[in-house]
Amino acid sequence: MAAVNTEAKLKNRLKQDRVQLWNAPFTDDGNQPGRRHMEELAARYAPLLGLSVTEVGGALESIRLQAVARGKGNEAFRETGVATLELLLPRDSRKDHKTKSHLETRLDVSVQEVADRIGEQHGLKHIKLILSGRTLAADRRLDQQGVNNHSKLMVLKVSDGEWKQQVSEEEEKMKQQSQSVQRTHKGFQILSERDGSEDPATTPFLEIADQKGNALKIPHAEKKALILAMGFHEKGRSLMKKKQFDGALPHLLQADQHFSKCGSALLGSVDNDAVLQLDIVWCYRALEALSCLEDGRSRLQRAEDGFLRCYGEHQQRLLTIKGNTGKEEVLFLRLHLLQSLLSYIEGNDAQARLQMSKVESLYSRLSLDSEKTSQLMALGFSEREVRLGLRACRGDAQEAAVHISNQRQEREELKQRERLKRRSRMKAVAALAELGFSRRDAGRALQLADGDVDRAYGVLLDSGHNAEGAEPEKLEQLLYLGFQRHASEAALRLTGGDVQSAAQLLLDNQGVLSVSPPSTSSEEPGTSSNSAEDNELVKEVLEDISHHEEDYLDLTLEEESELIATIRGYLHREATPTV
């Protein structure tokens, strides 16, 4: 890491001074170094960086060779499509530890073909290739897995026994990760489509609420995307807690895709997307994916901008909503810590130190007094409650005890309101079902009527009156838009003949809609969303959702402490001048 830092600093200095090492007088016609000019440059930069002339000279030559090789590689890639890849070989397979190994190859070939070539050239029997902390699948092409011209591939040796086991485990792991993403998507998709008309004892129902627990009115399509995004995020966070970062990252990236489908007005008022960006970069760090540096920098900026919009410039909005800001400071600690790491990798030590000073101040404030923790836990509070309570109250144990008790009461009152609301909805559905409508149609009608039973009855009654068939011209409009006839008729019945509302209803339900006219029985056949299999799947994905709304703020700071010590070590070493 120190060598990377030195080269990054030199590259910044060279760029600033407009020095092109690949051109004369630093490189001659035979691509050899212009030694006198290189030595003069080393002597000039050494005191500026606080390093020895020898160390700077070596780093400058490394940069020059990289630039010359990159220039040749770019020209070859443009003319022939042959890419140049840098290989990070196992230590005992390197002939010269100072010389980097390269491989020329097209990118439309399989990873296995490239692995075979590397193995033959360097005497390695079984190997696996790593790009940005991710193992490349042997049966897929390089360009399908993000390999580009000048990509750096880590080469790891694998023994015969390990190779057989790895092939089996990798196949199983890829299969499990794919199945996990698919099951998470299906489970939360089922939840996003539920209308609250089912029995709460067997069919959970999710509702989007603000930070005070009040339900938010969101368009159905946006609500669906938000539930899927939050579901994938929770699954990813669950895997992060288990230190399974390679499994967590695909779920977090899926969450990012679904958040992009939500309106900017909604995302601007909640911190979910900002926290997600922070979690993605934390995964990059854990996987040592330095090639994701540029993406990580932009994601951290998104996180910082998101916190600013949601919490207010001086967290005044957060203070108004919650009455305190202490718990959210763990997010800023992690944000500044990652910013410090990225600044160091980029060679900007001054910026790294600036961010680290913010980190150290926050860490000191957020670290808990063990005696106060024990006192509060002796009162019957959980470890999580104590952590969050002490941070919210800036370490005041007495205030924290009152805060925790108040929060417990507020949560209980919220649960009671939710139970009453659900009970009221179930009664409304039952009342409409007694009049001959299906429970599913009653639930959807109540959604359209914002819970008003009389209005819902009117919607259902209009649907019944129009059951014989929709007005031809309105039906034709929906058919022209590409919707199926039976679904279009059902949508027009449910919306009382309003074409625009019917079209939106069809879009929200992917063009699939089934509405039954009033019948003489309230019983209805089982549907896929009510099946035992679906309920089991929903139960599975809900296990990853924390029952505590502030679980994402409950950090022990163990991982953060380790990274702080690592970056301190880097910065201390760079600050110590070499004679």
Explain this structure:
Helix 9 (272-286) packs across helix 12 (329-345), helix 12 runs antiparallel to helix 13 and helix 13 packs antiparallel against helix 23. Helices cover 62% and strands 4% of the residues. Among the domains are: 1-79, no CATH class; 81-158, Phosphatidylinositol 3-kinase Catalytic Subunit, Chain A, domain 1 (Ubiquitin-like (UB roll), Roll), CATH 3.10.20.90; 417-528, no CATH class. The protein has 579 residues and is mainly alpha-helical.
Characteristic key phrases:
Ubiquitin-like (UB roll); 23 helices; 5 strands; 579 residues; 5-stranded mixed sheet; mainly alpha; single chain; 62% helix
Quaternary structure: single chain
Distance between the termini: 21 Å
Rounded radius of gyration (Å)? 30 Å
Poorly predicted regions are 465-470, 514-530
Give a count of the beta strands, DSSP E runs of length 2 or more. 5
Strands side by side in the biggest sheet: 2-1-5-3-4
Averaged pLDDT:
79
Number of helices: 23
Shape: globular
Which percent bin holds the helix content? Answer: 55-70%
